[in-house]
Amino acid sequence: MAILGLQGIRGGVGTTSVTAALGWALQLLGESVLMIDASPDNMLRLSFNVEFTHADGWARALLDDKEWRNAGQRYTSCLDLLPFGQLAAGERENLYALHDRLVPFTAALQALKAQGNYQWILLDLPADFTPLTRELLAQCDHTLTVVKPDTNCHVRLHQQALPSGTHLLINDLRIGSLLQDDLYQVWLQSQPRLLPMVIHRDEGMVECLAAKQPLGEYRNDSLAAEEILTLANWCLLHCAGPDRIHHPDNTGQIV
Fold this sequence. Notes:
With about 260 residues, this protein is α/β, with parallel strands linked by helices. About 40% of the residues lie in helices and about 20% in strands. It has an eight-stranded mixed β-sheet with strand order 3-4-2-5-1-6-7-8, with helices on both faces. Helix 1 packs across helix 11 (about 225-240).
């Protein structure tokens, strides 16, 4: 099994939606997946039909001295979700002060990996540099850094440290944008860790959160859903071994 962390090079690049879509794609390929929201924004749950008012999560449980395992949610027979939990305003303003109470979850991650109940643990990581984020990154076997082909991300690629060995995943590439095409061509030449697939701009990706579903469940016929399936197969090949690669047909079903 593998712990795969997904982190945006900055906020707003679509990391949570990509994480939800990738988790759905992996379980569609027959893999058992645990999705963990590691961000205080607590947004991942909204892609899996969890009520907006639902406040439980692993971090909320640790802060309240409760059993964090009880915060888990089952979405399909192969896909489970562990939300972060809702923080109070004062807690969000003092995240650094919460570190010692939340850091035991890093040991819990390793225990989950050792138990082997899941083939994949996907971590939706915040785009920050808090000690907790760094320690969760250290638990990951592999990481994907999500970027958009815009000037902001281009500058950050040159001045911001990235996780060691990470791969870059382009999200929201817009067909017909001259600037994005120029940046993409530059990155092809200058970024050796760029993944060989991109996620194009797709209204399905924008709409699926409103439908409270991951992309592949909401619009399995969309271009972005097909690209996410390609990404899932890449993960199987490069993060889990070549004997576990699958080949979807054009309906998204396994053949």
